[in-house]
Amino acid sequence: MAEGERAASTRGIAPLLAGLSSLGPFSIDAYLPSFPDIAARLDASPLQVQQTLSAYLFAFSVMTLWHGAIADRFGRRRVILVALALFAIASVGCAAAANIGQLWFWRAMQGVTAGAGIVVSRAIVRDLFDGAAAQRLMAQITMMFALAPATAPVIGGWLQTWFGWRMVFAFLALMTAALWLACWQLLPETLPPERRQSLQPAYLARTYGRVLTSPAFLFACAALSLNFAGSFVYILSAPVFLMRHLGLPETAFLWLFGPITGGLLCGSWLSGRLAGRLSLGRTIALGYVAMSSAAALNLGINLALPPGLPWSVLPLFFYTIGMALAMPCLTILALDPFPAQRGLAASCQTFLQAAGNGLVAALIAPALWGATLNLALGMTGLMLLGGLATLAHRRL
Question: pTM here?
Fold first, then answer.
């Protein structure tokens, strides 16, 4: 297909792919303001409620290994439609949960299906475009994707205030149904039958082994995961960080998610503008300049000042600018070595990031959220590890 014809046939696809990519993060952030109410209504401890998030993230990470391989075999569109339908059913199950055990189960079922959107969206981008065009589309998706962390806890906080925690999951079910209808009408199939891959165990074992033992792939994925984890510890710690340390109500989550979203929007826009003008490596280096400066500012503020607004959240804006600037470039570097198995490679990439997120949710965030200085140190350490992974990738 000619470039002009392809652009015409995919016009408007960025918002649709952004919606698919945002479903997973939205379902993480939307119910954070409801943690205290869930604990009270289901007679659960705060740790048990936190484990509903861990159940989601670990199920998400395991299943993301398979979404891409399945999409390589059966096509992108079919996998997306089935996954969205199952996610909506799991959301209804969460809303109807009678005890914390049932909520664990249905959150895990949400995690099983939520990853299809982000995995298959990345594969669709690489099906359609290469080089600077792919970087620009990924940057556009990231800009719209950035709205999820800001709007989800705000919407969730008001739904919690007006109706209680169950309505948050009912809203997720309705939103997913609307997204399913949009995909049914607008999402094209980007993987023609002649490019479909096998699901034979021997072939899958060889391909997974080749991807997951590629040092360049692993270092690029590690950099993506560690950079994101530097801000994710704040997202996971939002109820404690905002309500305990900063003394804000459950409707004030925008104080945290606003700067994060603003930074993601600015960094993604800048990444799109630089596509084709700066090399991927220089764009990534510029992102690390922003992230390291923000981490240093965060440490200085926490050493010099007590927790408060706006200084406790300001560094997150600059950190996420750098993170979003580097993210599309690192994603391209991770997927490019596997042009015939982009779905499977995207699955492996998302699996590694989700597994890292699950580790952050289960161990790192709870260990850090007791003090704002600990969170600042965690951001700095994770970012530095991401930088080392990027340097290792460049040496290869």
Answer: 0.71
